[in-house]
Write a structure and sequence with these properties.
CATH class: Mainly Alpha
Helix content: 40-55%
Shape: globular
Radius of gyration: 16 Å
Order of helices and strands: HHHHHHHHH
Number of helices: 9
Strand content: under 5%
CATH topology: Lysozyme
């Protein structure tokens, strides 16, 4: 967990609450125009690894309490997601991957689930009017930046989530920890309130206490 992610900005507190009760299964794909830009070597390497990885490692815990907390989180998150993802195995695989990739990028899992809820409504094959793809609505130019340009890879579960989490982490670093501005940059609406506040509202639905 990163400190600034855990504390929404004043703007989020003022505007975010009105979105908390919006049903996530009605959301269209919302991605805007992310900007193609030079990437640091570390970001490029992290994205390149996503192209070759077939599945995330299964979580391992040094202490029993940590494992039990994870299993409680997984059970409750699965219950909340069931209306949208009815097939148990696919739902658990999705949540395990979100959990792994969010922590790999140093992001709150609830934040990443909030982004997915707003961006794609948890639809694996969502495509926005701007051409962004998958759960986290990643723009195809990212595959040209770090791989062979095959935008179809963005429909692969771990690839999409790795790209989305690494890109959001990159934007958060670029914005010096300002999550409000980083989310706007992710959506291509930097400085506007609507998208960040939708995400802040959705994040609260996934803030699971274990």
């Amino acid at each position: 967990m990163i400190g600034c992610v855990g504390s929404p900005t004043r703007r989020a507190l003022l505007f975010g609450a009105q979105w908390a009760a919006v049903p996530f299964w009605h959301n269209p794909a919302r991605a805007g125009a992310q900007i193609e830009e030079p990437l640091a070597d570390a970001v490029r390497s992290a994205l390149s690894a996503a192209v070759s990885d077939s599945a995330p490692p299964r979580p391992r815990f040094a202490e029993l309490d940590a494992r039990l907390a994870y299993l409680r989180w997984l059970g409750e998150a699965s219950r909340r997601l069931r209306p949208r993802k009815t097939e148990h195995v696919a739902r658990v695989e999705f949540l395990e991957t979100v959990w792994y990739e969010s922590r790999r990028a140093g992001l709150e899992t609830s934040l990443v689930l909030g982004v997915i809820q707003v961006e794609s409504g948890f639809r694996k094959y969502a495509i926005s009017s701007a051409g962004a793809r998958g759960y986290m609505q990643v723009m195809p130019f990212w595959t040209r930046t770090i791989g062979d340009g095959d935008a179809g890879r963005l429909f692969h579960l771990q690839t999409n989530l790795r790209f989305g989490c690494v890109i959001l982490r990159h934007y958060l670093d670029t914005e010096a920890g300002d999550l409000f501005m980083a989310l706007g940059r992710y959506n291509g609406s930097r400085g506007k309130t609507e998208y960040p506040n939708l995400v802040f509202g959705a994040r609260r639905q996934w803030d699971i206490k274990v």
